[in-house]
Amino acid sequence: MLNTENNFAYIDGANLHSALKELGWKLDYRRFRVWLEEKYDVKRAYIFIGLISKYKDLYTHLQECGFTIIFKEVIYDGTGKAKGNCDADLVLQATRDSYESDRERAVIVSSDGDYASLIKFLKEKKQVQIILSPSSKDKCSILLKRTNVPIAYIGDQRSNLELKKEKAPDADGTA
Question: Is residue 115 within a helix (H) or strand (E), and if so which, with residue range?
Fold first, then answer.
């Protein structure tokens, strides 16, 4: 029997989405959740995301894929752009779990240097496993790199994690 750990992932949903969009591909969240479990023993995967009613189908899909969603109320700037900064919520949950849960190690999914102090805290407690950066190597924050915690780049897993376009019936002459 395999000895598996009880690791949690903390995912900055906006950072993940925008970084992969910039790289030109969409994530298959179902595959991503399975990959987190198989590769990093992630038993609980939190995704921190702004709550916007028109995306309710996305939220349902994420829950069906096995993510625990932590919503942030959004506000709108003067141009009508939604702002739902989840950084503090992610840091609070990871810190709380450090003291209150049986989580062994944390997997942080973000390229944002604002998480460097959290990474340092988790490293001191020997509770960080890896940083998964959705950005390319040159766009991942130097502040995260300076923590000397292992960083893996989600883009390196594109062939495994990319959402495949479903072919239309009869698109290639087959039923």
Answer: none
User: Within 13 Å of residue 152, how many CA atoms lie on the same side as its CB?
Assistant: 13
* Amino acid identity at 173: G
Q: Which residues pair with 68 in a beta bridge?
A: 46
The DSSP call for residue 153 is E
DSSP code of 170? T
Tens-place pLDDT, residues 129-168: 999 999 999 999 999 999 999 999 999 999 999 998 765 5
173 pLDDT above the threshold of 60 = no
* pTM of the complete model: 0.90
Using CA atoms, how far apart are residues 62 and 71, in angstroms rounded to an integer?
Answer: 12
In the prediction, which pLDDT does 145 show?
Answer: 97
Three-state SS at 173? coil
DSSP track, 78-96:
TTS-EE---HHHHHHHHHH
Contact 73, 51 (CB under 8 A): yes
What are the CA-CA distances from residue 111 to residues 40, 73, 102, 133 (Å)?
18, 22, 26, 5
Which residues have CB under 8 Å from 31's CB, separation 6+?
160, 161
Asked if residues 140 and 23 have their Cβ atoms less than 8 Å apart, the reply is no
